[in-house]
Amino acid sequence: MPVPTRLICLLLAMLASPLALTQDVDPRTYDYPLSNPFEATLVGTPPALRPSLPAERDIRQADYQIRLRPEREFALPENFWPVKKMRYRLAQQRGEAPLIFIIAGTGAHYASSTPEYLKKLFYGAGFHVVQLSSPTSYDFISAASRFATPGLSREDADDLYRAMQAVRAQHPRLQISEYHLTGYSLGGLHAAFVSELDETRRSFNFKRVLLLNPPVNLYTSVSNLDKLVQTRVEGIDSSTTFYEVILGKLTRYFQEKGYVDINDALLYDFQKSREQLSDEQMAMLIGAVFRFSAADIAFTSDLINRRGLITPINEPIREGTSLSPFFREALQCDFECYLTEQLMPVWQARHGGQSLQQLIDEVSLYALEDYLQSSDKLAVMHNADDLILGSGDLGFLRRTLGPRLTLYPFGGHCGNLNYHVNSAAILEFFRG
Amino acid sequence: MVKLPTVALCLLLGTGLAQAQHTPDEDGFKQPLQHLQFNPALDQHEFERSSLRALRVHDPLEPWNRRVYHFNYRFDEWVFLPIVEGYRYVTPSLVQSGVSNFFGNLGDVPNLLNSLLQFKGKRSLQTSARLLLNTTLGIAGLWDPATRMGLPKQKEDFGQTLGFYGVPAGPYLMLPLLGPSNLRDTGGLVMDFSLASQVNWLNVAEASRQYPAITLLEVVDQRATVNFRYGQLNSPFEYEKLRYFYHESRQLLIAE
Fold it and tell me: Which of A319, A344, A369 is the last residue of a domain?
């Protein structure tokens, strides 16, 4: 190459330098065994490749509750009694330690499997751990959300922030050296907004913040998830529904095996068997799980705000009342439907918002571009084959985060979080 | 001017993108949804159809069942789980597993009889071997050497036996304290219970009549070993979901 060309080449490489600096994990050295993103999302990591974690017995932990929204005692029907106070889980070390908050993903409970896994990981590394439900979960919407209409990231972060402050106030004798924050999936996006809020409110002064597989453009993510139930699945006909197809496969699998054994490795072994699901079937299953979350959100938000879209206003609901008619109604509503019927009107009325594009920019990571760029405490771990991303999303993360983005070649959506290489990297980030 | 391919080459060198089989785009994104076969108009209602059909479980006593569900939920939170936690706190793990094994060994008696009733020859032999090994080598069932020798516990209850003979599930029932069931399985439960007291294996059934603490221990052990928590599905529709899971998992156990 002639010298000028080489010079230009160098200049161009420098221009592209934020890209170059991103920590791309080499697929040749990354031995996560599931290169199929759908399998990874559903199955997670085979038990043998997970990190060693402290036993349940060795963790000093308990569930606590706080009354954050006293008015909900009266606003909610009596069969909502378990979710009138916000619940959370705290695992305490003996003596002083750093404390980390974990924010759960879409619709997830603080005690669901991923927060439980992360808790064990951090507890084993010497952290106090607080597990919080997602602002989109049934319990959080009912007990902790001021407007009970999740989806506006700044409002959701504000609710989370108040919850975190209340949690700390409930344990005045807990000795905390410093605060950290993490979240996976939608909880990752929330973590970023909470961290930004903390820069002005200064209650915690988070030392490090880690976003695990967060959505970048929230609308892309929910559209992808909505679309997953539109796959063309073989084996379905007028007499056999999708669930029957899956259950039929599971039955034949157990029959062949000779006995029913439900354990951690079940899905992994199942996908290795003759009955394994196709990509379309897995996509539909993942999509179905998210549709149930969407139904819960649509129903709960509508009921608390008395919008009358799903539950008729002033419908008497007692402990014996069947919720199935409302469930049937709510199942028809996907994320897009929740967005147009409930979220958009609220946003337009309260925040004077206009177009969908404006809303997307406000609730996605785009709204934090400058903050992400300038804040060294914050990092992202993501997968190149994550189902909730769209084109351009990784480009945005590369540009804004540079070396603070670690990109794994496989793992689907959160499938490799409990792979020992990832768990080591997660702990390393908080130790550093 | 630099030629276009050179620029492209420079950019590639600068970005250091890894080449993978899924043809990633310029950001390294692999577009996992791209190769999926979608219904072209994106207007299929298979999710809705499947889910609505799954809601159709025969449940004529629903108002009563729902109240029992809430009663169980409260009882679990206020009474049952605190006792279980206390039990776990004061009991060394070795003793806990001894207790579980001991009652598990007793449970193999109905497991054996129900396997026989369903003509499951191999399973009957395996469960007999388990009973013999665990009662002798395992010292009255306190240890479970059979599982380590490759003979895992295989549950068969009378509800499954009835299902095997084609008895329909009947209406769904939420039993106080015991949780989800249906008419057939409730009958099975009664049958298994009276069977256990008839056989009186290791004399436990008779002893429990004299010392109710044994029954209490059995109940606490059972609650401690079952992972289910009310509220863990974290959905306003937990009742419906639980009902569906119960219904389908019983179908699966009967078919298998």
Answer: A344
- What does the alpha-carbon distance between residue B26 and residue A398 come to, in Å, rounded to a whole number? 11
Within a domain: A5: no
Q: Does residue B46 belong to any structural domain of this protein?
A: no
Tokens of A63: 């569930």
A329 and A181: one domain? Answer: no
Three-class SS of residue A97?
A: strand
Mean pLDDT of A42-47: 94
Kindly report, residue by residue over A287-298, the tens digit of the pLDDT.
999 999 999 999
pLDDT by residue (tens digit) across B29-74? 999 999 899 988 888 899 999 999 999 999 999 999 999 999 999 9
Compute, in degrees rounded to 10, the torsion defined by CA atoms B3, B9, B11, B16.
180
Residues A209 and A73 in one domain: yes
Residue A399: Cβ-neighbour burial (10 angstroms; 0-12, 13-18, 19+): middle
Measure A243 CA to nearest chain B CA, in Å.
6
Residue-level length of chain B: 256
The reported pTM is 0.90
- Find residue B113's DSSP bridge partners: none
Closest residue of chain B to A299, computed from CA coordinates = B236
Question: Does A239 contact chain B (CB < 8 Å)?
Answer: no
Indicate the number of domains in chain B: 1
- The token pair that represents A309 in the structure block: 């879209």
Predicted-complex ipTM score: 0.90
Longest distance between any two alpha carbons in chain A, whole Å: 83
Best residue in A230, A278, A310, A319 to probe B by mutation, most B CBs within 10 Å?
Answer: A230
Residue A171 lies in a domain: yes
Contact B238, B231 (CB under 8 A): yes
Residue A173: domain span: 18-219+356-431
Alpha helices (H) in A322-355, listed in sequence order: 324-331, 335-338, 344-351
Which residue of chain B is at minimal alpha-carbon distance from A392? B27
